[in-house]
Amino acid sequence: MEEAVELTPEELELPPCKYEYLDHPADVQIHAWGDSLREAFEQAAVALYGYMTEIDKVDITGRQEIEADGHDIESLLYNFLDECLYVFSAEEFFVARKVVVTEFDKEAFSIKATLYGEEFSLEKHPQGTEVKAITYASMQVYDSGQQHELFVIIDI
Amino acid sequence: MVVRQYNEELKYLERLSPQCWRIKKGFQPNMNVEGIFYVNDHLEKLMFEELRNSCRPGSIGGFLPGMKQIANVAALPGIVGKSVGLPDVHSGYGFAIGNMAAFDMDNPKAVVSPGGVGFDINCGVRLLRTNLTEADVLPIKEQLAQSMFDHIPVGVGSKGIIPMTARDLEEALEMGMDWSLREGYIWAEDKEHCEEYGRMAQADPATVSMRAKKRGLPQLGTLGAGNHYAEIQVVDEIYDKWAASKMGIEEKGQVCVMIHSGSRGFGHQVATDALVAMEKAMKRDDIDTNDRQLACARIHSKEGQDYLKSMSAAANFAWVNRSSMTFLSRQAFAKQFQLSPDDLDMHVIYDVSHNIAKIEQHWVDGKLRTLLVHRKGSTRAFPPHHPLIPVDYQLTGQPVLIGGTMGTCSYVLTGTEQGMMETFGSTCHGAGRALSRAKSRRNLDYTDVLIKLQEQGISIRVASPKLVMEEAPESYKNVTDVVDTCHAAGISKKCIKLRPIAVIKG
């Protein structure tokens, strides 16, 4: 059972939607962007959950902390999204409505994030499509000047 | 990726026969061997369109077309023969979907690549027969479909109903279908009609991460989502009466059950873990690939061996998974017809893997060689008299199960000698996608798709309405085109055509 947690109004505030699902024959390509790369990462994680259920049916009643690291920016993104998929797929079965990156080190390639959402329940959450895994295929991360966006293909 | 103008790209492609194209070296950098792919007129257009769409130098986003992916695979160290695209080939991740490649076990530099197996390790198809006819089933078709849907957990987030502890899982990973047999879920004969007899001996659960086991445990005995399904089908056409009768298929209208599923979250995590581990090993061993998703390791390195052991555990997981759903399907039929599964003659015709790497012996340039054959979205299709196929099919060749898509036909083919020579005993695996998932969601309407299925007399039970659009027949290549191309090219032979009367999906 999840513990009841106190959440501040700020934590309950919902972010704007800055992601889209692009055409790919077999799978789905997530395109996420933001005012910073940090925001693009947060958006990509929400996009991941958004494919597995209808995200507006998810309430924020709890939180989960996750951590990931990598050896370059692509592997950081890969491992971060894999971590997000894992909390959904195993014990906890947590689905997030909102993701906040709390620490983002672009030199050491490490990331910490808080996921806000609740336990996935077949009674409450419509079933979307299952995401099997994150892929490196045609992965692109842009982070310079005004351009902060990323493309990642998820395996369906 | 090399980006040239479309007309420039075409210079690297040459038609060999009406069903076959050659991809010359230079199409992608560092190609060790040539590529080859099989298409008919219709499928050919789709392939070339995919290539044309990607020839936009300087644009961001986008993805690699299937032809480029076939060529990237041809650039992997130790590849033997050709990188082969089967008729259902389309862009995937790393390898194309519908791509097979063999690597020389005796070449110390040859590699194994998790991207050549896919995330859904040992995803495959199983076909059960019954002694019922369509007329027996039609009056209670809706109840039967509902009963199958109630018995088999489907869709994202569903959990298995067969009781499993962490210890059971360890044993299942090691024993595959021997575990299912010991626990009483299957019949002894089921194993006989399954590739590898439902158990890969190299499996070592100790090489599998805790994460994979945690993802796998709740999902054992679940169908999953995406293109996975359980269908009640009837025999629509018999092309090879003699081979069909060896499979226990005697007449049109006979009822069968097809199950298409894989190793669920367990296999997905095993593949992910291997990909991450191999990325590191590639730096150490100085291996370079054209695509990061083609991460690979030398077959005899620790990473390579660990992957083969954990992949085998995932393969065992998938067989136990399909076996659990075989058990549930038999129960559903038995309850509806008040007859035991035995009396309904619900035998396994065959069970194929279409995402796997296997050690096999093949003739290359007149010499018998031991190869690691990767099949991703490709099915093994061994010819008559091959020692690795069961005694019942020694004279017909291996049954090859080609699953259609929701609402379309499925096929049973048999392996041929020509396929053994040309494609390392491999053929297609299904329809292969034509329309992207996002496009299907935009262009198709949920209710239209359902009405159309209803008009065709197909009952459907599905967990996710969105999936109905993504998986609509319009989203796929025509499976008949795919199968006819395999038949015309001689790499496998048509035996039976099946059409669905009820579909159960995630």
From TrEMBL, chain A:
Residues 19-156 form the Archease domain. It holds the Pfam family Archease. Keywords: Calcium, Metal-binding, tRNA processing. One of its GO terms (biological process) is tRNA splicing, via endonucleolytic cleavage and ligation. GO terms for molecular function: metal ion binding. SUPFAM superfamilies: MTH1598-like. The keyword Calcium applies. One of its GO terms (cellular component) is tRNA-splicing ligase complex. Belongs to the archease family. This is Archease domain-containing protein. The lineage of its organism: Eukaryota, Metazoa, Ecdysozoa, Arthropoda, Crustacea.
Automatic annotation (TrEMBL), chain B:
Binds 2 manganese ions per subunit. GO terms for molecular function: GTP binding; metal ion binding; RNA ligase (ATP) activity; RNA ligase (GTP) activity. It is an enzyme of class 6 (ligase). Mn(2+) 1 binds at residues 120, 123, 228. Its cofactor is Mn(2+). It catalyses: a 3'-end 3'-phospho-ribonucleotide-RNA + a 5'-end dephospho-ribonucleoside-RNA + GTP = a ribonucleotidyl-ribonucleotide-RNA + GMP + diphosphate; a 3'-end 2',3'-cyclophospho-ribonucleotide-RNA + a 5'-end dephospho-ribonucleoside-RNA + GTP + H2O = a ribonucleotidyl-ribonucleotide-RNA + GMP + diphosphate + H(+). Keywords: GTP-binding, Ligase, Manganese, Metal-binding, Nucleotide-binding, tRNA processing. Its EC number is 6.5.1.8. Mn(2+) 2 binds at residues 123, 260, 354. Ligation probably proceeds through 3 nucleotidyl transfer steps, with 2',3'-cyclic phosphate termini being hydrolyzed to 3'-P termini in a step that precedes 3'-P activation with GMP. In the first nucleotidyl transfer step, RTCB reacts with GTP to form a covalent RTCB-histidine-GMP intermediate with release of PPi; in the second step, the GMP moiety is transferred to the RNA 3'-P; in the third step, the 5'-OH from the opposite RNA strand attacks the activated 3'-P to form a 3',5'-phosphodiester bond and release GMP. This is RNA-splicing ligase RtcB homolog. It comes from Cherax quadricarinatus.
